[in-house]
Design a protein that fits this description.
- Helix content is 29%, strand content 27%.
- Strands 1, 4, 5, 6, 7, 12, 13, 14, 15 and 16 form a ten-stranded mixed beta sheet that branches. Strands 2, 3, 8, 9, 10, 11, 17 and 18 form an eight-stranded mixed beta sheet that branches.
- The chain folds into two domains: 176 residues, FAD/NAD(P)-binding domain; 152 residues, D-Amino Acid Oxidase, Chain A, domain 2 (2-Layer Sandwich), CATH 3.30.9.10.
- It is an alpha+beta fold.
Length: 397
């Protein structure tokens, strides 16, 4: 399955850490991770840091799949509001899930502090604005839950939002402990660290997921991979039968603009909105802006570059309505797949049918944050240690 079309931006900003061989012979491994994108890379880092022997298998090149289409907005707030989760899964689990996300953002920030600055990891505040006046009450209710449980958040009314950020919308929430990142550079830097810790990599190695048995899986070329445990971190390339009725694959559009001089808006905050599908945008090093939106309920990507460019222009036009002073043009535009779940939660933990098979699928809009949390959950499951969040996101729920 093709994961992205058009021209992505991030993978042009760095060279791969290394080129890895394809797997041509049988392999015995302790822990095998299928997928070398953000999820697989974070899992390898977490497990290798704990002294575990890890092998990563990727069908293409490390970080070149969905992760190269990631817009790099990292937030503890989910696509589903805390208050909506309260209604959906109960207050206790809703708050626990948001605490998991906040802790994961702080862990990502700590991990980033050990990596070169070229990863583009920067702490940023987020502005989550009401798209229409009718959404103001939703924001107020959300803010009441966030403050009740001491999440970092501030309510901005219409006047304050205009005065502080020049955004003429009915109201907004400002959150912090959020960050922006160059996902491709981040993956490459983490891969370098993983190599130092003994992680083994194979690229251009397609695995036949239907061949998965109790302790082995076959590559498409016929090599047998035997394992003690296997982690499936394949992102949106396959919708597994265990997720039937629980998830679906959709598509979205995104752009990177040409560089401009000067400031886009105050504090380079990241911006998104209450409308579904929503517009989201951020700045990037070098005077660029990254933005996305116009999600569609279809897994059939568009191949026409002119159409992808047109959708990108629609995204940019929406932003220019909010910030008329911006004189900016599209440099790259792309169309990519992403996964959503029926209940708004990712799928992370042991497979329903086999306790040495683990899923690390960061479905919904916070894939990087979820993947950091999922890596911790899977490590605890492997160690036989209780994890307070595992039951919320387990694939068998």
């Amino acid at each position: 399955m093709k994961l992205t079309t058009g021209q992505t931006y991030w993978d042009k900003t760095a060279k791969p850490t290394s080129q890895f061989p394809s797997l041509e012979v049988n392999l015995n491994a302790d822990i095998v991770i299928i997928g070398g994108g953000m999820s697989g890379t974070l899992a390898a880092y977490k497990l290798a840091s704990a002294g575990k022997q890890v092998t990563v298998i990727d069908r293409s090149e490390i970080g070149r799949g969905s992760s190269s289409a990631n817009t790099g907005l990292l937030q503890y707030a989910s696509d589903t509001m805390l208050s909506e989760f309260v209604d959906r899964i109960g207050e206790k689990d809703a708050v626990s899930f948001y605490k998991m996300c906040l802790e994961s953002m702080d862990e990502l920030t700590q991990v980033a502090s050990t990596l070169p600055e070229t990863t583009g990891y920067r702490l940023r505040d987020s502005i989550y604005y009401a798209s229409t006046p009718k959404d103001v009450d939703k924001l107020k209710r959300e803010y009441s839950y966030l403050k009740k449980y001491d999440f970092p958040a501030e309510y901005l009314d219409h006047k304050k939002l205009i005065e502080e950020y020049g955004i003429d919308k009915p109201a907004a929430l400002r959150t912090w402990h959020d960050a922006e990142v160059n996902p491709y550079q981040f993956i490459q830097a983490l891969t370098a660290e993983n190599l130092k810790m003994g992680v083994t990599y194979f690229e251009h190695t397609s695995v036949n997921m239907d061949s998965l048995s109790e302790s082995a899986i076959m590559t498409e070329s016929g090599a047998k991979i035997s394992f003690d445990s296997i982690i499936i971190a394949t992102g949106y390339s396959k919708l597994y039968s265990e997720l039937n009725g629980k998830a679906q694959i959709n598509q979205t559009f995104a752009i990177a603009t040409k560089p401009i001089e000067g400031e886009f808006w105050k504090d380079s905050v990241m911006v998104w909105e209450t409308k579904k599908p929503y517009l989201y945008f951020r700045t990037a090093p070098g005077g660029r802006m990254i933005a996305g939106g116009l999600d569609e309920e279809s897994s059939e990507l568009y191949d026409d570059p002119e159409f992808i460019q047109q959708k990108g222009q629609e995204i940019l036009d929406e932003i220019k309505e909010m910030f008329p002073h911006l004189d900016v043009q599209i440099d790259d535009a792309w169309n990519s797949l992403f996964g959503i779940s029926k209940d708004g939660l990712p799928f992370m933990g042991a497979a329903p049918h086999q306790d040495n098979v683990y899923y690390l699928l960061g479905f919904e809009g916070n894939g990087t944050c979820y993947s950091m949390a999922g890596a911790s959950i899977i490590k605890d499951l492997l160690d036989g240690t209780h994890n307070p969040y595992a039951h919320i996101v387990k694939p068998s729920r």
